[in-house]
Every structure is written in structure tokens, then in C-alpha cells.
Amino acid sequence: MYISSDWLQDFIKIPSKIKAADIAAALTSHTVEVEGFVSQADRFANVVVGQVLEVKPHPNADRLRLTVVDVKTAKLNIVCGAPNVAAGQLVPVALVGAVLPNGLEIKAAEIRGEKSEGMLCAEDELGLGDGHAGIMVLSSKARVGQLFAKYLKAEDVVLEVDNKSLSNRPDLLCHYGLARELGVIFGLSLKPYEKFLNEIDYPTGREAALNVKVEDKEACLRYQAVRVENISVKESPAWLKDRLIAAQQRPINNIVDLTNYVMLEIGQPLHAFDAAKVGAISIRRAAADEVVETLDGQEKTLSAADLVIASDREAVAIAGIMGGRLSGVTEGTKAVILEAANFQAAGIRRSSQRLNLRTESSLRFEKSLDPELTGLAIGRFLTLLKKLCPAMKISSGLTDIRSVAAAPLLVNLDLDWLNAKLGQAVAREQAVEILERLGFQIADKSAAVLAVTVPSWRATKDVRSREDLAEEVLRFFGYDKIPSQLPTETLRVPEPNQERILARKIKDVLSLRAALTEVYNYSFVGADQLTKLNLDASNYLKIVNPLSEIQSHLRQSLAPGLIASVRNNQAKSERLGFFEIGSAFFTNSGRWPKETGSDQTLPYQEKRLGFILADDGAELLVRAKGVMMSLSSELLGRQTELEFAAAESLPGWADTATAAKISAAGREIGIVAAVSAAVASNINLKKPAVIVEINLDAFLELALSRAAVRFQEAPKYPPVTRDLAVVVPEQILYNKIRKAITSFDSLIKSAELFDVYSGDKLAAGEKSLAFHLSYQSEERTLTAAEVDKLQAGLLKQLSEAYGAKLRAF
Description:
The chain is of the alpha+beta class and 809 residues long. It has six domains: 2-41 and 157-191, 2-Layer Sandwich (Phenylalanyl-tRNA Synthetase, Chain B, domain 1), CATH 3.30.56; 45-152, CATH 2.40.50.140; 206-402, Phenylalanyl-tRNA Synthetase, Chain B, domain 3 (3-Layer(bba) Sandwich), CATH 3.50.40.10; 409-481, Phenylalanyl-tRNA Synthetase, Chain B, domain 1 (2-Layer Sandwich); 498-594 and 601-704, BirA Bifunctional Protein, domain 2, CATH 3.30.930.10; 720-806, Ferrodoxin-fold anticodon-binding domain (Alpha-Beta Plaits). The chain is built from 22 helices and 38 strands. The strands form ten sheets. A seven-stranded mixed sheet has the order 26-29-30-34-33-32-31. It has a five-stranded antiparallel sheet with strand order 5-4-3-6-9. The protein is elongated and about 140 Å long.
């Protein structure tokens, strides 16, 4: 956005000692970032006033003229194509080296064989209008050799303000808003804007009322309109064009220029319709695929989400963005309908983006403008129009349709809180003065807690809380006055996430020691997939909006994903191993509420660890047991023994003959099972596979309850080692025999299975289990007789409990 220093002077008298650089630095420090500033005179560097002395035809081109132009320091030969060039004229001359506002660089040239030492300029080439029918002819007041900028009195300095820093300050998208800020910064008096408005008498009575209807009052918060007759559309006066050019706006005609002028002055967009082309006005949503030809000649196809200004049944403008060409003001316009509206910001933003149509108007509306600006803008327009068109006549009443009544916003500001928040004492008088100069009202200035009424231009989206008021005080008090200091907060080490730590240790064991590959599978399964795995999909949670048909349910096990990982990779390797840590989901209620304060809970979730081994010929069950033993030893400790026992219930994909439940410290934590041949055939799994799946939450509890490792003195007395091989019925589990051995006497320190045999030397239904037994006392060296007696007693107990007998071979 571009701000004219001369324009600011209308509202605050900036002393000459305050230079443009001072203004730029002050605004950057207190309000918004100023990217730079430039003198208007610099735009017309190397452009001077010249007098045409001689004009004659070009010998080699019918449409060109050869001119001799006096610029005081020299008489230049210039080739000109303007049809209106004539001897005696005073004209703007761009000398060699000049760079015009449109970017054209002037160089010495030879045109059709004739030397040209400059250029005679038209209005559009100087950025002063659209005229290109001929060169610009100056008034007799111009002096030959005079700098063109001086002739224009273009000594203004223009500041460029960064648009991004204005996103939350719609009140600053104009000259008056920035003048207010500079008044506070430099202690200058701001003129009330009402001083720039004339008293306006609007006609009354039903016959003077405009026919206006707002159909969507949520999208159009306020709409004001008035009809003005007896106007004359023509070129704007120099003062108006100079102001617009300084703000990088192109002058068009006095009516359109005046709407832009008011917008740049107070931030409220206006639009003028040719009254002869507009009947009854309605503010409504566009019909689907409705087409509007905008003022720039583009046809825009609208949707039902777009808001339009319509005349009878035809849209004549895209609300808040751009007017339509058919209702635009032209040289033949004798009466206009002037509108000033306030639209819902988000709707304007969406329409502008969808239509790829960003304008100065939409830029302001999408920032949430103050609804009170509409009346001021119409008043200012009519005041200035009276100067441009003295015969103008207001021929209607002022239509004012408002959907939301204005309600003042009150924010309490505790000064003790303010000083504690800023970490710096701010005097009451200074805080009050800053707020009042910014337009805030304070009823009781002596109260400990100030009741601050927020002005309408700051209440739309900017100032809503005491923290916002603190920012207002601080930015004018001075950020640089706040001493820098380190925070006094005591830093605390965050509590360790035990689940994450456990998961990382598990990954280390499985990936490094067991050489398994980690996978991340979807938490979703399909009904067809479950059926092939011999699982009932009706017991699973169904997703309302699934990603696809094959991901329609939430999984209750990691097994489907692990099996799929093997099936998808079985052709790539003979030996496969994958593991995954993830969640399983069940239909019963969990502990987490659906929403804060809600009595309803999310479905129960359980953290699981699963791994799968697949090989064509290995002892997969033994390998899987070895991996689990390694995990248990690392995470639960050597003193915690894993037990593998027959499982009462198994998932549908499991082979019941090759499966077991896994327990640790007397607590069931999971299962190990081979994938059945029937299921493998259903899913085209070509390798034997064994899956282990455990409850990670239970495993974590066991890991956290693990007793601390303590060192103890090495035994003084040596152990006595004996082997014991017993024959037992085949259905007797190894764990039962081992427990019976280790619990028989405290002198038996360990029992290690080293051989299992079942063959022709034994009767059918029998098996042999051979153990290494270690006997040891902490008080003495055991004798052979003592050990023989203990072993005989042990064999007797095993015989009585399990029918065991000593193996004879």
C-alpha cells in the first residue's frame, strides 16, 4: 500500500523537521513495516518542459513528424508520431537517460533515417491518465526548461507499507488510519474526520426511497445507497489525479476517481452505478453458472457461494470485488447510484480466490471492515462531488439496511496486571493517554481496573481482550524500553515416556538380534480379508467413511497386516521376518472420552507387539520361542521366566496343533501360533509362517515392576552337577516337570533341559526329558551321598505326580 505524505498533512500537521525517513522508522517501530519511500519528483527525473519550435513531415514516413524542441539547455531534434503536435506548444520532454513511470527507457535513436534525441510524452506514458491520442500539451504557466515534476508540483514523498503487516489492522488500509497512528507517535493533533463532511439533507418520503432488498443478511452486514443526479462525467481535476497517482492508482474519470479517493482516504470501498442502467437493487447469492462481465472486460462464471449486487434479475456487480461493465459509469452518465456496503469477510475472500480476482476493494473487505465507515464514506463522497459537480442533486433518501445492531465492546484492563505483564512500570496517565489518542474511551480514569470501550474500527477483529490493550500500550511506550532478561522459570526434566522407551528397546532386540524388519501397516482391514483368515467381520468396528472397500473395519490384531507383509514379499526371499508395534481396536468402551466433558468414550484400544517368521524348512516355532526368550531376558530380566502352555482359545487363522499361550510371571501376555494350511491356501500364502502377538501394555507393566538387578557375592562352595533323564507320558508338558524339579528343594539351583526323545526305544505315547541339574549350598560343600539322596527323592516325587520313571538307556 502506498501512502502520500501530502495527503497525511490534511489530517495532521507534520513539522518540516520530521522527514520521510523519520516517519518510516517510527511507523516500523510502533505500527507497521514500511518497506521504503520515494519522492514523486524521482518518477519524472530527466523529464522537462520543452517548447516545440518547428514541425515538418518525416521524409520517409507519412505518420511521423520531425520536430525541433527547445529545452533551454539545448535545441533537440525529436521524431514524433503524435497527430496533435504543433509549433509553439509547451510539452513534456523525456531526455535521453530518462526512465518513464511505465518502465520505458529513453535512448538516442535513428528512426527511419532521422536522428531523435528524446521523446515528447503522452499522458499514459507519464502515468497521468489513459490519454494516448496525442502528446500532453501543458498550460501557458509552464516555463521552458522547467523540471516537469516541479510544473506538476509533484514534490510529495510516498511511503510503501508492507501489506502483510496490515492483515489484522483493516483500520490502517487508508491515510486517515495511519495519520491517527502518527499523531500518537509524534504527539500531533488529529483532525476529527467529521470536519471534512458537509451537512447533507437527504430527500424524505416514499417517492424518494430507493428500491433495495438485502436477501442474504449474513453475507451483507450493512448496505447504504443514495441516488445523485445532474452530474457531469469528465476528467478529474489535477489535485485529485495527483493524489491517486501518488497512491499508485490510475485516474479514470471524476466519478470513479472520487470513489477510489474516498477508499484510499478512510478505507471504505465505494461503487457508483449508472442509475439509468440499474433498476431495483437486490443483494443476493448468484445463481449457479451465472455470468458477469466485469469492468475490466472479463467474463466471470459464478457459483451459488458468490454474492452479487443485482438489478431486477441481472447481476450488475460481484459484491465487494468488482462492478459489472454494463452498469459502469461512462461519459454519458447523468445520474449515479452510490453504494457503500459491509460484507462478511470470509465470503469475499473465498470468492476472490476462486474467481482469481483480487482488487483494492476485496483486499479491504476480506480484512473485516468497520460497519460504521459506510456513512462516513458516502458523506465524504457527496462533499467532494459538490466541488467537482456544483449542479449535482441528491434525488433519493439514504437507504441504510443493517443486519446487526452496533454494540460497543468493553474490555477491562487491570493496570497492576498490565505492569506485571510488561515487566515494566507504565504510569497510569501515560497508558490512558495512549489509549485515548488511539480512539479508546475510558469512563473512570482513576479506577484500578479501567473499563475501556473499544472504537468500532478496532473492534471488528483486532482488539478483543486485555492482552490486546497491553500490546497497544506497549508499542507506543516502546519495545526498546523493556529490559531484556532471561526467564526465571525453573526448568524441569520431562517425565520419561516409558512406553516409548520400551518400544525402542524392543525394536533394538528384534531388528538387531533377531534380524527382523519393522513394518507399519494400516489399522484397517476388509471384510473379505477377515473372511479368508477365518475371522468374523461382524465383531469388528466398521468405519462410516472408509478409505476403500478393503479398509472398511478397524483391526483387532496385528496378524492380518503381518500375514499380508509376508504374502507380498514371499517371492523375494526364502526367509522372511517382520515385526510391528501398533494398536488394536475393540467394540467395548475404552477409557478416553469422545470429547472434553462428554460421558461417552472412544472404543477400547490396546497396544500390541507382533512379529511373524516365514521359512520353507526351519523350526519356526522354536525360533519364535527363542526371539521371545531374548525379549524377555532383555526387558523383563533373567529371573522372569516365560511359560508356553496350551491355549483355550485361538484366532481363526491359527493352527490349533501348533499354538500356545505365552505367560510371564504368572500373567498371560499373548500367543504364538502357526498359520493353518487352510488359511494359507485361502490367501495364497506359500510359506509356513508362525506369528507371535503380545499385549504391549501388559509387557510394559511387567517391565516396570521388574526388580532392580543387584550384585551378590560369588558362592564360596562349588556346585554339584548331575544329569537326570525321565520318561513321562507324552501329554505332560516340559514346564510342569521343570517346575516340579526346581521347587523340590532349595539346594536345586537350576534345571536345564538338554534333550527330548521319543522313538522306538520308548513305548507309544511316551517321551524322554533329560535335564542338567545343579545342586549347591551356601553353607558347605555338598557330598555325593547328599546329592544321591536328593535326586532319589526327586525321582520318587516325579513318579508319584506324573508317572515318571528313570530312563534306562
